[in-house]
Amino acid sequence: MAMAGRRQVTEDWVEEAERVRDELRDALGDAGVTLPSLGLDAASCAGSVPLALIDLGRCNVATARALTAAVRPVEGAG
Predict the structure, then answer these.
(1) Residue 28, Cβ neighbours under 10 Å: how many?
(2) What is the pTM of this model?
(3) Which of 20, 44, 50, 61 could bridge across to 13 with cysteines, CB 3.0–4.6 Å?
(4) Helix, coil or strand: residue 36
């Protein structure tokens, strides 16, 4: 694959990862959770075969509890 083609593939992967990161940030925000370090893993975007991993980062205990509550199923539902 030509260098310009690889660069476009990488850009496409990174743009998609940015969109998904933003969607996740918004969904978590709707659930009352903010992950302060949410971002893209730069190293995963730089390789010859980009993975464009989303880095959830670190959070404090209160944020971890809020995230746990947000993803745990509601009792009696379903």
Answers:
(1) 19
(2) 0.76
(3) 50
(4) coil
